[in-house]
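[recover] target loaded
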């Protein structure tokens, strides 16, 4: 009996692990969820935040179309993209990114490390050319003024192109939102009066295992901001887990996500 139960337990574990691997490789990466988070702020504003589409070797244009359809159905004030459109993309980049031209509202975007040769081929000019005339507006090292809020974009942290003195020099007559690719760019915002900084890059780890995912990010990347909202000594930060995949093409307990961030003066 003991031998039988050992074999049965071993077989059950192998089956469970196999099912988890199949789910993580072929099911969860095909999902796209909308996660709503309320963030205290001096303004009421609804933001759709996405990042890390990584169109290319693992993510095809149909995933991008799925994202565009969901964004088009959302009633939000701003649509923001926090970098990494590509990951070893096909030669015809215009065709691969074509679904973004069907957005029914502007998408304010910054580029990520995979878009600017860190790593990978230099794609920045090809991306901008492919999306010319589209609703995608690139805002690296720029400030966009809206009636009730300002939006600023940063270059990818690894490029070291940003001098955030231009943000410290801004008047403080309205809330400032900062869009960036890497959470590490928060370090550049010391002395900047901002309401919320938003980033991607981490993919939420792609595979979320309590304690272990955070420990790996801390040890391997010196990164403690992985997924969701953070109230840091420098200000509020939100990290979205992204839509696509890189490296090992799996997701587990960390589905592709559109983050609906609801800035609210009063939080219940």
């Amino acid at each position: 009996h003991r031998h039988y139960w050992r074999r049965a337990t071993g077989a059950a574990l192998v089956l469970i692990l196999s099912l988890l691997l199949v789910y993580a490789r072929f099911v969860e990466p095909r999902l796209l969820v909308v996660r709503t988070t309320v963030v205290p702020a001096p303004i009421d504003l609804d933001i759709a935040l996405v990042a890390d589409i990584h169109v290319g070797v693992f993510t095809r244009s149909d995933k991008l179309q799925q994202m565009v359809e969901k964004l088009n159905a959302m009633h939000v004030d701003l649509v923001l993209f926090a970098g990494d459109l590509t990951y070893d993309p096909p030669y015809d980049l215009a065709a691969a990114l074509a679904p973004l031209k069907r957005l029914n509202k502007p998408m304010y975007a910054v580029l990520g490390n995979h878009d600017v040769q860190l790593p990978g081929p230099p794609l920045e000019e090809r991306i901008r050319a492919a999306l010319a005339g589209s609703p995608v507006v690139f805002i690296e090292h720029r400030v966009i003024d809206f009636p009730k809020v300002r939006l600023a974009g940063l270059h990818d942290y690894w490029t070291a192109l940003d001098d955030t003195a231009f943000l410290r020099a801004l008047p403080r007559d309205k809330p400032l939102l900062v869009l960036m690719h890497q959470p590490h760019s928060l370090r550049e915002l010391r002395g900047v009066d901002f309401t919320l900084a938003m980033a991607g890059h981490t993919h939420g780890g792609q595979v979320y295992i309590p304690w272990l995912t955070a420990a790996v990010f801390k040890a391997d990347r010196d990164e403690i901001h992985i997924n969701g909202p953070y109230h840091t000594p420098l200000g509020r930060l939100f990290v979205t887990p992204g839509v696509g995949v890189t490296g090992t093409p799996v997701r587990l307990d960390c589905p592709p996500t559109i983050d609906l961030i609801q800035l609210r003066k009063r939080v219940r």
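[recover] notes: The chain has a mean pLDDT of 93.
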